[in-house]
Amino acid sequence: MKLGKYSLGIGDRFAHQGHYQLQAFMETLERGVEITPVWNKSNREHQTVSSSPDSVRKEANDAVKSQGWSNDYFVDADHITLGTVDGFIEASDFFTLDVADKINEPLTRSELELFLSAHHQYFGELKIKGIDETFLVTEDVLSQIAHKFYKATRAACFIYDRIRKCKQGLPFVVEVSMDEVDDPQSPLELYFILMLLSENKVPVDTIAPKFTGRFNKGVDYEGDIIAFEKEFEQDILVINHAIHQFGFSPHLKLSVHTGSDKFSLYPIMHRLIKKYDVGLHLKTAGTSWLEELIGLAESEGSGLAMAKSIYNEALSRFEELTSPYTTVLNIDEQKLPSVEEFRQWSGERFVRALRHDQNDELYNPHFRQLLHTAYKIAHEKGGEYLDELKKNHQIIGFNVKLNIQQRHINPLFLGL
Q: What pLDDT score was predicted for residue 210?
């Protein structure tokens, strides 16, 4: 069981699209490029739709069996903490350790003194192969890094140890996530994060830092693309350096938690992973749920009525739905269609507003982001919603597969 050089995290709120998702990986494999599928679902998502980690394992296993996939695949306990990990241990073999809440938890004076005395060898100039600039590591710089990240890396150690003891020798993938925070980590900070993870004996396979710019849910990147490109390239070089200096697996790679659909970044990322011949893990979020709504709207009739009812409720419950995602949304409520306007929409009009096609003048990223958060409403509709998924599975499945293949895999991993 091995996480491939390229891997892609795929979410599925209601566990109906696994076999369609997998078809995109199979078509890519036929073109000579293997991408490891990783089904992921967070504790928050499980709580919202009353599912369990076992349901994700079942979906993955059923998809693999039905499609005849003979390569490796994984089930990711997405963004788990020490308080939530136990419920995921049996069903998962990929663990995203979320330690963001421990960042900026400061050390005591005595703890800091011990840390600095144990790491005085890092004072001075730090040169990383491939990076033109030289980093100056002073006592103040290292103190700031310790205050920001020491407790976070210790938290990763505690979660990892818990999983290791419970798994009793069974293999699993370890990812450390620090992306759901306000401030990006610099390449120098990433270097010391990896140093601390090494000292804490966390055999990390993928590392998910926070990058410059906004990675809002379901829409394209907002930020300085040139700054992202420099940061992404330097992070690759830092990881290559850390592999040799700290003894990590040669397969250690970046994980990018995109919130899905960062289309403007995909050509940059493709060029750089090819330039340095390195791997990449991309974690998408919730796009299959939006493709379900697109398929329902395209089907017209009761499917369109269902999709419309979900938006109407979402509009009236805006604060409730968006408040858990405030750091990854940028919605202008004035640009959301009103109930009166929306009532007149055809299925085609709904689809053109929701589908992420920036060349379409009717595409509405505010509408898309709100519906991204509205899967709770679909869950509340219970069997009525699931019956519509079953009734319209062919048109939904077509959209699900097309979305993963053409909008994510092709530009990022194939350069198409």
A: 94
